[in-house]
Amino acid sequence: MHSGAVDLTPHSDSDKPNRLNNLGNAFLIRYGSLGELSDLEDAVTRYRDAVDLIPHGHPGKPRNLTNLGNALLTRFERLGELSDLEDAVSKQRDAVDLTAHGHPEKPGRLNNLGNTFVARFECLGELDDLRDAISRLRDAVELTPYGHPDKPIYLDNLGNAFRVRFEHFRELSDLEDAISRHRDAVDLIPHGHPRRSRSLHGLGISFYARFER
Fold first, then answer.
1. What are the Cα distances from residue 46, in Å, to 72, 131, 187?
2. How far apart are the first and last CA of the chain?
3. C-alpha angle with apex 205: 203 to 209, nearest 5 degrees?
4. Considering the chain, what is the average pLDDT of its residues?
């Protein structure tokens, strides 16, 4: 259905980028279910086409950049091509820069950029990437009000970044920060919620790292 909508929409149509973005979403969802690399390749292509077609200044541009960045990071995780990782960082940074302060999607885009910096640090070992990751993830947490359903996700990602820094530099303060963020995430998630186990897992790993130290 999405593919037909894209094929029938001329490039001059202002809705073409949105339809390409939706088609990219469909391919990425199918990739997540079936693991077929061709679906991931198609997702990246459609997202890139959407970004290229949408003009600068259009309010939908940051969303399309975010989706392209996420797909590129997923392809890097699958194939290990550094160019995909570099491109993912670039697209996520552009998405953040184009999103106004106070916009409800700003924290999520900061979170995506932070996660991408963590991935690049783990690949290349550049300390600046880890510093940038923690800075962006901290901003995502601070900009998200209590009660927002994504607050625990951002807290866990910040905790993970602190734990990564502890594992490389063995500063106990980083591990304490990791434990604190994971504990906050757990406290915000009600008992019985399916995501609570992930936050408990992150907290447990951090406690174990402190025990081993």
1. 12, 32, 39
2. 55
3. 115
4. 93
Give the DSSP per-residue string, 157-208. Answer: HHHHHHHHHHHHH--HHHHHHHHHHHHHHHHHSPTT-TTHHHHHHHHHHHHH
Q: Is the pLDDT of residue 180 over 70?
A: yes
pLDDT reported for residue 96: 98
Rounded distance, CA 34 to CA 169, Å?
38
CB 95, CB 66: distance < 8 Å:
yes
- Assess whether pLDDT exceeds 50 at residue 57: yes
3-state secondary structure 15-68: CHHHHHHHHHHHHHHHHHHHCCHHHHHHHHHHHHHHHHHCCCCCCCHHHHHHHH
Contacts of 171 (CB under 8 A, 6+ apart): 165
pLDDT bin (cut points 50, 70, 90) of residue 131 is very high
Q: Return d(Cα 194, Cα 30) in angstroms, integer.
A: 22
* pLDDT cut 70: percent of the chain above it: 93
Please return the burial class of 2, using the count of CB atoms within 10 Å of its CB with bins 0-12, 13-18 and 19+: middle
Residue 8: pLDDT band (50, 70, 90) is very low
How far, in Å, CA of 142 to CA of 155, rounded?
10
